[in-house]
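Q: Given only this backbone (428 positions), what sequence would you predict?
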């Protein structure tokens, strides 16, 4: 170019930053005679995007006073929040001369990523004025960390303050309903979508399929699913998972076969879901074939996939094969994988494999540092069922010695708008 101005420099710097090439971006930045607030913001954001918050902060501190606009402050605070550095973000946030809506939402989202709902809500409550994006950040944050009752309460408060939900709000509250298993609440949200004529993009449609599937209304979930013109992997996975979790494993396998023929190919989560379906349906042959297909799609099996395979074989009584799978895993098996096999040993009363599992886990023998009550209880029950009372008593004594207590199971159901929890035979 015969002449280059600040716009062309910013365009080049922005392109390099977008692609994570901060070295070349820095060279152009240093060549500029004088930048603009946009230039400084691009560079700070670029360094933060590649995780180099130290370089981003160094550049922010160098910025002349006239270059430190609210945008410059915001991108630095946001850089800290996306990298999980909330203490640094809060220090800078508190020093800002004034705040825009985006930086408030960034702080709220950052605290939720650190699973600090109390601080996230405190930031939200400090806001003098709020917009819909801020409410969405609060509702989505609660949903993402499993505080679904709080998410629905925030949704109610949002409407009381005169804000109308958009598709992002709806996607978040549908997820909350799914996690709670509240079909009544989910239906009300669906009615709201139709009444307010809210845009039904793929986020909303996926949310509806997931909600109805998880809440047990598979017919309605399938109707929405079949009516979608384009289905992404999230939608396919939700429908397959819904069928699998409600005992319709054969239908889940058929839908998986349809997905293979579609434009949207299975991903790691799809295989996890369909392996679980095979496990609960007792389809050992099909499950083994599904596991082998992962390589066909260029996917690498994780410890969760191996865990499903072990559980599949274990439930079928093929404990020796399950043990061999664990021993040949390319990664270190965790206690969940060993626990699945150990639980099957109790069902099939296989003391030989149980003893091997206990030896492999190690912590069950030594007791040092182990806090997994379930494995102790299962092992004790295996010994007791085999009338090996001394061994059973030894395990129980080890639990007492290490301060491990059996955690009671807990179930919950939604009746109307009330959540009833049942623990150890008592309503809590």
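A: Predicted residues:
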């Amino acid at each position: 170019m015969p002449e280059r101005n600040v716009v062309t420099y910013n365009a080049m710097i922005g392109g390099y930053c977008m692609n994570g090439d901060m070295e070349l971006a820095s060279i152009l930045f240093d060549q500029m005679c004088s930048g603009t607030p946009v230039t400084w913001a691009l560079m700070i954001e670029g360094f933060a995007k590649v995780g180099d918050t130290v370089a981003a902060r160094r550049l922010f501190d160098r910025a002349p006073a006239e270059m430190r606009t609210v945008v410059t402050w915001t991108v630095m605070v946001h850089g800290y929040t996306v990298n999980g550095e909330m203490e640094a973000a809060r220090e800078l946030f508190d020093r800002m001369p004034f705040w825009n809506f985006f930086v408030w939402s960034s702080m709220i989202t950052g605290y939720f990523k650190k699973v600090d709902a109390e601080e996230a809500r405190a930031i939200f409550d400090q806001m003098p004025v709020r917009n819909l994006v801020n409410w969405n950040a609060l509702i989505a944050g609660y949903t993402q960390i499993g505080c679904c009752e709080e998410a629905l309460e925030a949704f109610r408060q949002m409407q009381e303050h005169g804000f109308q939900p958009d598709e992002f709000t709806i996607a978040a509250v549908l997820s909350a309903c799914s996690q709670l298993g509240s079909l009544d609440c989910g239906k009300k949200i669906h009615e709201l979508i139709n009444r307010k004529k809210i845009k039904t993009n793929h986020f909303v449609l996926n949310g509806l399929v997931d909600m109805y599937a998880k809440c047990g209304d598979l017919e309605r979930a399938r109707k929405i699913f079949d009516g979608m013109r384009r289905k992404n992997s999230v939608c396919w996975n939700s429908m397959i998972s819904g069928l699998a979790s409600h005992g319709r494993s054969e239908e889940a396998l058929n839908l998986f076969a349809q997905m293979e023929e579609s434009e949207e190919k299975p991903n790691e989560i799809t295989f996890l879901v369909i392996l679980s379906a095979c496990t609960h349906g007792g389809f050992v042959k099909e499950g083994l074939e599904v596991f082998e297909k992962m390589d066909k799609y260029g996917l690498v099996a994780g410890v969760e996939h191996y865990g499903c395979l072990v559980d599949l074989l274990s439930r079928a009584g093929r404990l020796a094969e399950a043990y061999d799978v664990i021993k040949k895993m390319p990664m270190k098996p965790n206690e969940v994988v060993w626990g699945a096999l150990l639980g099957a040993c109790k069902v099939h009363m296989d003391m030989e494999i149980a003893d091997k599992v206990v030896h492999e886990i190690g912590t069950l023998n030594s007791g040092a540092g182990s806090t997994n009550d379930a494995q102790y209880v299962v092992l004790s029950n295996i010994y007791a069922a085999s009338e090996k009372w001394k061994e059973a008593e030894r395990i129980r004594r080890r639990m007492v010695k290490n301060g491990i207590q059996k955690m009671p199971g807990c179930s919950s159901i939604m009746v109307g708008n009330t959540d009833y929890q049942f623990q150890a035979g008592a309503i809590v």
